[in-house]
Structures are given as structure tokens and as C-alpha cells.
Design goal:
About 25% of the residues lie in helices and about 15% in strands. With about 200 residues, it is an alpha/beta fold. It binds zinc ion (ZN). Zinc ion binds next to helix 5.
């Protein structure tokens, strides 16, 4: 039964379909004025929120040289996992080498994307997207692909890219139909943010 644009609960699929076409008149029937809006208020976009969150996650990194963060969101834009580059779970975080010198840290460090995939509470990450602070290394890309993620958005934090990196990168994303996009837009300025006590 159509009630001036509104639908009964058992017609929820149709109602969902119709939601975007509701007009002010539909609400006026219920006595709700749509004039009481602050149009100056601007919401952040999902991409802004998630990419900013990835940069905040990076602040938890154990690595003193390069800090990366990653956030995985599902088809409803809900966060299903997150991670940063850090030591293996249960490591001696305060003792292990966290600097590039000597190369010892690499034996114990897990990248942000892999941590985020490993810690996800759902096994199948198909239809999920991952936001990463930098372009994933090819090792992480294999994990991302294997878990079913086909949309990757990355930020401007660099990492060491060895010879043949981009060739392999292109092969992986083309062969598995992965969309990889450099983020372009605003994010929160994490480095200048001030921590306050509340
Ligand atoms: Zn990686």
C-alpha cells in the first residue's frame, strides 16, 4: 500500500528502492519540516574517514623508520579489521630492533595490510575494500587477493620498492582484476594533531 511515498514494512525492498525519491512533501504529511537543516554542516566522505583512520592506525607501528596503517571495510562501509606494521603478536616489543640499521627488524615485522587481513574476524573478505597508507608490497598484495579483496586505495607513505616491483604489481592486479587507486583528497593531518587528555 502506497502511503504518499511511504511503504509498509513488508514492502521494505520497495521502500529501500524508493527512499532516494522521497520528497519534502512526504515528510510534511508526518508533520516533519525539512527546513530545519544546517546546510553548512559537511560530513566527511567514507573514503576520507577510512583513509584518515589508516593514517591514525599507522601511529601504532613498532617501526621507527616507516609507519603504515591499513583499514578493511565491508560492503556496508563498516570496519571489519585494521592493522599497522609491527612485530609478531607476542614478541618482545620493547627489546627487538625497530630501526633499519642491520636489517634485523625485518625478521619480525608484519606489514599493516597483512596484519589487517590476519586479524579480520571474517574469513571471506570478498566485497571488502582495503585502505592503506602506501601502495602494498607484492607479498601483501598476494594476501589481499587471496582473501578476496578487489579494491585497494592507498596513500602517500612510501616503502622500499626493489627491482621489478611494479612489473609484478601490475601482473598481480591485472591477473586478478584488482582495482588499485592512489587516494586523492583530504585526510586528517595526523602529524600536526595534538594529543589531549580527556
Ligand atoms: Zn607488505
Amino acid at each position: 500500500m502506497n502511503m504518499g511515498g511511504f511503504y509498509l514494512p513488508n514492502q521494505s525492498v520497495e521502500a529501500e528502492h524508493m527512499a532516494s525519491s522521497l520528497t519534502s512533501t512526504d515528510f510534511e504529511i508526518l508533520g516533519i519540516s525539512t527546513k530545519h537543516r544546517n546546510e553548512k554542516y559537511k560530513r566527511w566522505s567514507i573514503d576520507q574517514i577510512m583513509m584518515s583512520t589508516a593514517y591514525i592506525m599507522a601511529k601504532g607501528s613498532h617501526d621507527s623508520d616507516t609507519q603504515h596503517g591499513a583499514v578493511i571495510v565491508d560492503e556496508n562501509n563498516h570496519i571489519v579489521s585494521s592493522g599497522f606494521n609491527g612485530f609478531l603478536k607476542g614478541s618482545a616489543d620493547d627489546i627487538l630492533p625497530n630501526a633499519r640499521l642491520g636489517g634485523h627488524k625485518y625478521k619480525f615485522m608484519v606489514h599493516a595490510e597483512r596484519n589487517a587481513c590476519d586479524q579480520a574476524t571474517r574469513a571471506d573478505l570478498s566485497n571488502c575494500r582495503i585502505f592503506v597508507t602506501g601502495v602494498p608490497c607484492n607479498d601483501c598484495m598476494t594476501t589481499i587477493i587471496n582473501r578476496g579483496i578487489r579494491i585497494v586505495t592507498y596513500g602517500d607513505v612510501g616503502h622500499v620498492q626493489g627491482e621489478g616491483f611494479w612489473e609484478m604489481h601490475k601482473y598481480l592486479i591485472n591477473a586478478h582484476n584488482v582495482s588499485v587507486t592512489k587516494y586523492s583528497g583530504q585526510i586528517i593531518n595526523v602529524d600536526n594533531a595534538v594529543l589531549i587528555s580527556i
